[in-house]
Write a structure and sequence with these properties.
- The chain has 9 helices and 6 strands; from the N terminus they run H-H-H-H-H-H-H-H-E-E-E-E-E-H-E.
- The chain is α/β, with parallel strands linked by helices.
- It folds into 3 domains: 41 residues; 167 residues, no CATH class; 94 residues, Beta Barrel (Barwin-like endoglucanases).
- Helix 3 packs across helix 8.
- The longest helix has 28 residues.
Amino acid sequence: MIKKILTILVTATLSFTFVVSFSIVHNLGQLATAEEAEQTKANQPADTLCPNGLADVDEGEYHYIAINDLFSKGILNGYEDCSFKSYDPINRAEALKITSEAFTPFTEEYIVPDKRPFQDVPLDAWHAKYIVQAKEKGMTNGYEDETFRPWETINLAESLKIITQSLSNYIEPHADELFTDVQLDTWFSGYFAYAKARDLLNISAENKVFPEQEMSRGYFAEIIYRLKRSFEGYDFGKATFYGEVFHGRNTASGKMFDMYEMTAAHKTLPFGSIVEVTNLANGKTVQVEITDRGPYGPGRVIDLTSSAFEVISSLSRGIIYVEYKVISEPVN
């Protein structure tokens, strides 16, 4: 009898030891290996608060307003030296982090799951919680080999997918045509239709947006900023000017064009609308009245008088990126 009891106790002990050992090994397998830990350390995000601002984001760069606005809201930060490195490529992990901070911030305490979301995302890595959340929300499905490849760069098409899929109110708009290099039958056409409807992209004179382009940190921040501002009623694009050659001629509204007045041309806004235009490279603003029609080149959204343009930029710039918003409309 005693021998039987001892046998049962030994068996139970061995079984318990096996379960605990298996659990430990399993859990350790979800954490970073030495190689993964080294990679994670080498790819730390820009996460320094920088109370004096970002040292290398200078006035005059087209993403100046975008980066500083997101920085002021805590959506993005600087590196240890308080640089942002706008023109460096952004990797998939940090792109997802910035998107999450902008549109799907954590409202509850993050609960670590039992297993890795993807084979190459250890649970103790800084980016794990963002990727876990993104996978749950359908923002990313990873690759066919069940990896996420967090340190690879991300292109424009992939960026738009992640950003749009983070939105709770995303609805793919109808589009009859998009851009010269984005056809309607591509897997990413819906994301570009949404981006076009909200003026999120830089468009070339040939009506191209280059969907395969490697994303820079500055351009990624610019798209996030434009999307957030679009929900507040702002539009974006290129501003140009016209002046002396047209001085004294009639405009589409019937008013005489005066290069010294604060007026502008827009393709669709009602004549008499007052629009506030902001230069995204320096934050300078001007208010203009819509009195004419145009401009018509790809990506061009408003044509200012030379005097109005000069309030927010040097005429030598010729074309600038702006945001604009209607602040009053005509009574009739």
